[in-house]
Amino acid sequence: MSPFSAEVIGTMFLILLGAGVVANVILKGTKGNSGGWMVITTGWALAVFVGVVIAGPYSGAHLNPAVTIGLAIAGKFEWANVPAYIGAQLLGAMLGAFLAWVIYRDHFDATNDPDTQLAVFSTGPAIRNTTFNLLSEIIGTFVLIFVVFYFTDAEIKEPKSPIGLGSLGALPVAFLVWAIGLSLGGTTGYAINPARDLGPRIVHALLPIKGKGSGNWKYAWIPVIGPIVGAVIAAILYMTLK
User: Fold this and answer.
1) Per DSSP, which regions of 99-166 are E strands?
2) Which of 184, 189, 216, 213 is nearest to 22 (CA)?
3) What is the CA 123 to chain-centroid distance, rounded?
4) Cα distance between residue 122 and residue 189, in whole Å
5) Share of the chain above pLDDT 70, in %
6) Superkingdom, according to UniProt (predicted)?
7) Which of 25, 26, 43, 75 has its CA 20 to 30 A from that of 112?
8) How far is CA 200 from CA 64, 77, 114, 172, 220, in A?
């Protein structure tokens, strides 16, 4: 396992389980149909946990270009490695979206609404307002990146010695994503991750989905640019306060 393959596989699991829970809740005829927002946000939080468990020991489990860029701005990650990480995240997101479609293919075919089909792959606004949709993604990602900067390892204080938590160390970021989804996700679906939205949106455009509509590409720049801007602001504020 290399850092590149860890980012690919970790992001693949993240999107497979994240897109999977959306498909289970909104596609026609599934066991979890109409499960609601709590199921979706919980599923995404657990998807983050799984992705971080896999990739954490090998790549730091960025799984998100906004995380990679934010850490690089703050001097916690080498800029030379940024392109490879982002490429791995985009590839992993595409693979995860493809696998989610394979699993739910019959339910995609049974769902007549093209907007519902697209919603499994990518985010969209509850109320279309470009300025506030962009602001929503900026703020949501700002919260994600800023809080990540303040994660600390468990330790025994007297004398100070770190405690290895193993896979349980992935829980804080899962709870953070859960909190963002529950509190801030109702406006745009909280992409807060350019690869999470762009990769699956590309896969949607390529797949032979019955009754498929457009990919809403006019909106697609918002869940890419918004998270990057939010990450930049979070990194600058963190460095200023530090």
Assistant:
1) 155-157, 160-162
2) 189
3) 11
4) 9
5) 94
6) Bacteria
7) 43
8) 13, 26, 15, 26, 11
pTM assigned to the model: 0.94
d(CA 25, CA 27): 6
Omega before residue 159 within 30° of 0, cis:
yes
CA distance 99 to 19: 9
For residue 39, the 8-state DSSP code is: H
Structure tokens at 75: 């001097």
Pairing of strands 155-157, 160-162: antiparallel
CA 169 to chain CA centroid, nearest Å: 18
Which are the contacts of 201, defined by CB distance < 8 A and separation ≥ 6? 118, 121, 122, 215, 217, 220
Where on the phi/psi map is residue 190: left (φ > 0), alpha (ψ -120 to 50), or beta? left
Q: Which two tokens stand for residue 176?
A: 């953070």
N-term to C-term CA, the chain:
34
Which segments of the chain are extended strands (E)?
A: 155-157, 160-162
Q: Residue 186: its pLDDT value, please?
A: 97
Nearest partner of 55 among 85, 78, 100, judged by Cα: 85
Contact between 60 and 81 under an 8 Å Cβ cutoff? The reply is no
Quote the tokens at residue 7: 């980012």
